[in-house]
Amino acid sequence: MRFDTSGKTEAGWHHDTDRVSWGAIMPRHVACLFAVLVTLVWAAGATAADVRVMISAGFFGVYSELGPAFETSTGHKLITTRGPSIGDSPEAIPTRLARGEEADVVIMDGVGVDLLDQRDLTRPNSRVPLAESFIGMVVRAGQPKPDISTMDAMRSTLLAAKSIAYSDSSSGTYLSTIGFKKLGVADQLAGRTRKVRGPPSGEPVAAVVARGEADIGFQQVPELIHVPGIDFVGTVPSEVQPPTLFVGALPKNSQHPDVGIELLKFLSAADAAAVITKAGLKPLSPR
Fold this sequence. Notes:
With 287 residues, the protein is α/β, with parallel strands linked by helices. Helices cover 34% and strands 21% of the residues. It has helices spanning 28-46, 60-74, 93-98, 110-118, 151-160, 170-182, 205-210, 221-224, 257-267, 273-278; strands at residues 2-4, 50-55, 77-82, 105-109, 128-133, 135-140, 164-167, 193-196, 216-220, 230-235, 244-249, 282-283.
């Protein structure tokens, strides 16, 4: 797997095979069969593709764990570009595609794919659901965990916080434009919130909280729970919890659509459920 975080690629993993002269040590008919086998293996390798994947942070943990297995089993190579699902960052996936960057498959939250559909940047009916996600909250490690189990409790927690961090992608956009208004605290929080730019050039919201630069932080659970120096508090109440699916889709400029769908099916297979759960996501019911 090769990772491209800023339009550049890094060298991937290569496996060199030793060349052996078998003609002198095996009968002619066996050597002929071996030659045919080598030819078939070479032909299969010749069809292997370099697959360009654009992916947001929420599903990246699953992808980074399962991607090498996909490469090994198929012979394809994954060339990875990271960016948020939506937002004003120049690294956001919709922005990358709009300016002509190439991708064979995108993996991001459903809101981002909706945006790509609206801009006619995806192939029709190519969407593959991968996992369900939820917005959660963290505090710095060792700090008291405030109650956010109900709307009233979360309202009190927000009003008591001196500083609040949220992401520059879908979860932060939702909270800052809808969630805080539903809670009736949008005006009171003015001047106390901070939008955090995410990877590749930025960092998770939890990293800001871990350094003590914000009292509390909100982001998709899989982007929070594996960051050192924080304690996970829980997910926000259902009334301010938008339904969020991470999905894959094919951009219009995909050069390897069949391989792209193959990758998405691999990442959403039943065997991937344990990895999805470990990442902080909810596997989908078998379709």
